[in-house]
Each structure stands twice: as structure tokens, then as C-alpha cells.
Amino acid sequence: MSYQVNGAAIEADEDGYIVNLDEWSKELAEEIAKAEGLEMTDDHWKVIDFLRNYYDEFQIAPAIRVLVKNAKKKLGPDIGNNKTLEAMFPDGAAKQGCKIAGLPKPTGCV
């Protein structure tokens, strides 16, 4: 599987997660979101930026509990809650959010 961005093929695994994390870009995130059936909003980008910063700091993609807890602290209670995150990322905030953010599949995601 691969995503097409600016004429280049970006390789992804069978679940749609990119293979080379260094190939991530906002353009690629838009393509992944489109493939996931999502239209990115400012709030989506806040979550994506949060996920990428979390990964940069801890070298691990956060599981959903960690995501909700830390998003509430960093992004506020309007975004950092299960209901809002699930509405934004219907296939799972951690799983789908990390895919769009160009990160590995979070630990514990099936």
C-alpha cells in the first residue's frame, strides 16, 4: 500500500501506517485523512500536532487513555475528552489520529 503525494509514492503497511516516519508531511496527512474519510479541521490539526509532539518527547504513540488525559491538559477539556475525540476520529482517536500524524500504531490497538 502507498499514498501519492506530490508525485511521490509514500509506502505504508497493510493497515495504512507509513513505513518511514521521516516522510510525513501535512500534505501526506491530508491524503491519509482523505483515505480515512475525514476532512481535517483546525481541531484535528491540534490533535495531530499534539500526537507528533508527544511522540517526539516520549518515542511512543500514546494509547487512548494517555491521549485523552494529556490532550485535556494541553488542548483543554473541549477537545481532550473521549466524546469529542471519538467524534473527530471515528475509527479510534489514538489509532486513526496516529495514522494521520504519521506515527506507528499505538500500543494496545488491535
Automatic annotation (TrEMBL):
The keyword Transport does not apply. Gene3D superfamilies: 3.30.1420.10, DsrC-like protein, C-terminal domain. InterPro entries: DsrC-like_C (IPR042072), DsrC-like_dom_sf (IPR025526), DsrC-like_N (IPR043163), DsrC/TusE (IPR007453). The lineage of its organism: Bacteria, Pseudomonadati, Pseudomonadota, Alphaproteobacteria, Rhodobacterales. Belongs to the DsrC/TusE family. It comes from the Bacteria. Keywords: Cytoplasm. Coiled coil: none annotated. This is TusE/DsrC/DsvC family sulfur relay protein. It is found in: Cytoplasm. The keyword Cytoplasm applies. Signal peptide: none annotated.
